[in-house]
Amino acid sequence: MIPKHLRKKMSSSRKHHLKSLMLSIAKGILEQEAKDSEVERQRYMAETCQPLSLPSGSQALQELCRELHHKIDVIDEERYDLEMKVNKSAKEIEDLNIKVIDLKGKFKKPTLRKVRMSADAMLQALLGSKHKVSLDLRANLKQVKKEVKEEDKELRDVGDWRKNVEDKAGMDGRKKMFEAEA
Fold this sequence. Notes:
Layout (H helix, E strand, L loop, with lengths): L11 H37 L9 H47 L14 H9 L22 H7 L4 H8 L1 H12 L1
């Protein structure tokens, strides 16, 4: 698309002229299509329908009516058969669409209630009442011994904080701190 600042403005008379040209071309195309469809209709009618020749006698007219009624009956039977096939196919398509939707999982999910259930009760519900399974999760846990580092011991053995503060108070306390580090 051309940016706005590069587009040139068209005068209203020019727009009107182009619009009328487009409308006249479209009108010509529509008229040509109408003529073509009429010619096609005439050609089809000439192929499928023979010109009607009415007999002069009443006996011949009755025979013509019976023949026309027979043709109408045959056509009605064909139409009915085709209509039933279409209805059957539509029903099959609808059933298959429902199956596809079910397989995709696009159906509305029901709201689930929250149920409190112990692990033993859940296993019993899943496995059935024949299997007696107790679920003791703590029995399966591994025992881990905790290793305590020396630094952690020192931090824990700080003791009374007031005593600590008194020891570090004044110049003597500072001197002791530096001596302890060195």
